[in-house]
Structures are given as structure tokens and as C-alpha cells.
Design goal:
Elements lengths: L2 H42 L13 H22 L9 H17 L5 H21 L9 H23 L1 H4 L14 H20 L5 H18 L2 H18 L4 H30 L4 H5 L8 H6 L4 H6 L7 E2 L2 E2 L3 H29 L5 H16 L11 H12 L12
Antiparallel strand pairs: 1-2
Helix pairs in contact: 1-2, 1-5, 2-4, 3-4, 3-14, 5-7, 7-8, 7-9, 7-15, 9-10, 9-15, 14-15, 15-16
Length: 413
């Protein structure tokens, strides 16, 4: 008579032990993927020798950033030893872009540098493929890893501002003092953080006090960086994401109404100050040519090319033309990957937008729309959607949100 209860207790104990083991394994998996994603973010951080307050030699800085990608690949192989992948259209398009750059290595003027950047591009894409089985987890693991990485970067910028204010504000714009991050990248990280946190709050996934603290600190960093593109991008991105939620989320409607009232009052009382901040001391000519960016876009387009170079470009470069940064995703795509790269970039963004429109209303759709719209706005004065960069990580996060979700958290086997 006592056997059945005893067996039942043992079965419950066994089930509890299996559950705890599975939970522990999942926590290890989450930590490893978070580490891999953090290494990918470290890999795309800019490095400028002599710009850090820390005595980091130039060679060490390059080893840290460039070695982060190789380490990320090795960890990804540990997490996914059987090389299980989840094919999707986005990764196929990115892989085509990476494979196309291989064609240009043999005909370039600088085969060593171009070949090295191409190899790193292939490594980057390989890591994304190895992480693809975890993209569609119900807990949005990739999104959480991205947000944590952004917060770590912004924390380093904030600490640098406190301990070395003058160094961080060189040129009147906030940059990284501990790790040398330029102002436009700082603004990008701040804008993306604001967008993600606000959408989390829209959907009731983050407390109001936590949201307010992160948004205020990130907004202060964004304003101190004095970057108009990031400011416009986050406003437009949040507007589109909010409109996708407005019919189902009362707090979005209330917030939009409050923001409209505050904006009207702000422009009525401080319009001159706002316009002065946006102008950044520049005249109409400088504003019209995007702070001088468009001045050499003409020579870039007019540069002599063979038919092959017209279609496939000159190969992955350091993002400059005639010694100046290109600062346009479309122009850099044309230079490095030709018309093929421009078309593929447009296809990626259009595909993600269409896929988001067909996604059911909710947090995943709102986040995906924010990332795509932000990257689309920034693409005219920033580059990186078609090569390893934070922008490519942004669109990768958007793509991960548009896959069907599953709730069983298991490692590939």
C-alpha cells in the first residue's frame, strides 16, 4: 500500500531534478550567447590610437577588437558543435553579400588588406549562422543581448565623461574617453538604447522607473554627442513603432498625446534654441551638403570603373574615399560592392519592412520596425548595413524578431 506514494515521490523528484538541470543548462547557454554577442559588438567598435585615457598601445587595441571576432567564432562553435543552422532569407542575402566580396579580392589594388577584411566578413557571417538556431526564442534572447551590450558601451562613455570630461568632450561632442568611440557611434548606441527601452515599456515589459532612468541618461548622452542623424532616426523609428502598437496599447496613445503637447509647447517657447542646436553653428550651405559629406560623393560616383567594378565594386575597404570617410551606406556599398551591393542592401531593408508588416501586432513587430526604420534613416549619412558593423547587428536583431518563435529552449543536437 505504501509503494505507490513512494514511487510517485521518486518520479516527482526525478522530474524536478531534470527541470533544474535543464534550467541550469539554459542559463549557461544564455551566458555564452550573451558573451558571443558582446564580442561581436566589441569587434565593430571603432579604435583610434592615442584617443583613450588608458595607456593602451595601438597594437593591443587592434588585437582586442579584431581578436574579439575570432573568439566569438570559437565560442559559437562550442555552443553549436554540430553546426545546426536555421536558414532564413535575411541570412541568405547577407551570405550572398559576403561571397560577392570574395570575387573582388583578386582584382583589387590592395589584395592583402581587402582579403583580410573579406575573411573577417566571412567570419562575422559564420557567427550569425551559428547563432541562428537561437534567434527565435520566445524570450527574445538576441534582443536582450543587444540591449545589454548597448548599456555596457554607454556605461563606459558615461564613466569616461565623469573621470575625463575635457577628453570626452573634445571638439564639443561627447565621445568615448575610456574606449575611443567617436561621437556618431556614441549617438547611435544611445538612440538604439532609447528606442528599445521605450518599446519595452510600451509593451509592459519594463518598469516605468527603470525606463525613465535609462531613457534620461541615454538622451543626455545623445544630446551631448550632438548628432542629428541619430536624433531624427530615433524619433522616426519610435513614431513608426508606436503607431504599430497604438490601436492595442492605451499607454502608447496617452504618451503620444503628451509628447505632442510637450513638443508644441517646446517649439513655441524655445524654437530658436532648438534650431540653433540642430544647426550646430553651421550655415545653410553646410546643412544642404550634409556637413560637407556630399562634396566628394560626386567624385566617388565619377571615379573610373571597369564593368566588373561597376557591378561588384572594389572590395571591402576601410570606409574612406580619397582619404575622407564616405559616411553614406549607399555610397560605400557602391564603392565596395558595386551596384550589386546597393541592390542587395535595398532588398534587405525592403524585405524586413514587408516581413514586419505581415507580422502580428505586438512587441516583436514594434522592435523590428524600429530597427529597420532607424537604420533606413541613418543609412544616408552613416554606413555599415552591408558590412560588419553595429548597423548590421541592428538589422540582424530585426530579422531575428520576424521568425516564428518556439518556447522549448534546447541546444542544437
Amino acid at each position: 500500500m505504501t509503494t505507490v506514494p513512494f514511487v510517485g515521490v521518486r518520479l516527482r523528484s526525478a522530474r524536478l531534478a531534470r527541470t533544474r538541470t535543464a534550467e541550469a543548462a539554459d542559463r549557461r547557454l544564455v551566458r555564452r550567447i550573451g558573451t558571443i554577442w558582446g564580442l561581436l559588438v566589441l569587434n565593430v567598435l571603432s579604435w583610434a590610437p592615442g584617443m583613450s585615457i588608458l595607456p593602451i598601445p595601438s597594437s593591443v587595441g587592434k588585437i582586442i577588437t579584431q581578436g574579439a571576432l575570432t573568439l566569438a567564432l570559437l565560442l559559437a562553435l562550442v555552443v553549436n558543435p554540430r553546426l545546426k543552422i536555421r536558414p532564413n532569407i535575411f541570412l541568405l542575402l547577407v551570405t550572398l553579400l559576403a561571397l560577392e566580396t570574395v570575387l573582388t579580392v583578386f582584382g583589387t589594388q590592395y589584395p592583402r588588406g581587402t582579403g583580410y577584411r573579406t575573411f573577417r566578413y566571412l567570419e562575422f557571417v559564420a557567427v550569425l549562422w551559428l547563432l541562428s538556431p537561437y534567434w527565435n526564442r520566445a524570450d527574445m534572447l538576441i534582443v536582450r543581448c543587444h540591449l545589454k551590450s548597448m548599456l555596457w558601451v554607454l556605461s563606459s562613455v558615461a564613466v569616461g565623461y565623469v573621470v575625463a570630461h575635457g577628453h570626452a568632450m573634445q571638439g564639443g561632442r561627447l565621445g568615448g574617453a575610456i574606449w575611443p568611440i567617436d561621437a556618431t557611434q556614441v549617438a547611435h548606441y544611445a538612440a538604439v538604447t532609447i528606442g528599445m527601452v521605450v518599446i519595452y515599456w510600451f509593451c509592459g515589459q519594463m518598469r516605468g522607473r527603470t525606463t525613465l532612468i535609462i531613457v534620461l541618461l541615454s538622451l543626455a548622452i545623445l544630446l551631448l554627442s550632438h548628432t542629428r542623424t541619430a536624433l531624427v532616426g530615433v524619433i522616426v523609428g519610435l513614431l513608426v513603432a508606436g503607431l504599430s502598437l497604438i490601436a492595442a496599447t492605451p499607454r502608447v496613445r496617452k504618451l503620444f498625446g503628451a509628447i505632442a503637447a510637450i513638443a508644441a509647447i517646446a517649439f513655441a517657447t524655445a524654437s530658436s534654441t532648438i534650431i540653433s542646436w540642430m544647426a550646430r553653428g553651421q550655415g545653410s550651405t553646410q546643412l544642404g551638403n550634409l556637413s560637407g559629406r556630399t562634396g566628394f560623393w560626386g567624385p566617388l560616383l565619377a571615379y573610373p570603373r571597369t564593368t566588373f567594378e561597376e557591378i561588384f565594386g572594389f572590395g571591402i575597404s576601410n570606409g574612406s574615399f580619397d582619404g575622407l570617410p564616405v559616411d553614406s551606406n549607399w555610397m560605400l556599398s557602391y564603392q565596395d560592392q558595386g551596384l550589386f551591393g546597393v541592390v542587395m542592401c535595398a532588398v534587405i531593408l525592403v524585405y524586413l519592412l514587408i516581413a514586419a508588416c505581415f507580422q502580428s501586432r505586438g512587441m516583436r513587430r514594434a522592435l523590428a520596425l524600429f530597427f529597420v526604420v532607424y537604420c533606413l534613416v541613418a543609412s544616408f549619412t552613416e554606413d555599415g548595413i552591408t558590412n560588419p558593423s553595429t548597423y548590421m547587428l541592428d538589422v540582424t536583431v530585426a530579422a531575428s524578431l520576424l521568425l516564428p518563435t518556439f518556447r522549448t529552449q534546447r541546444q542544437p543536437s
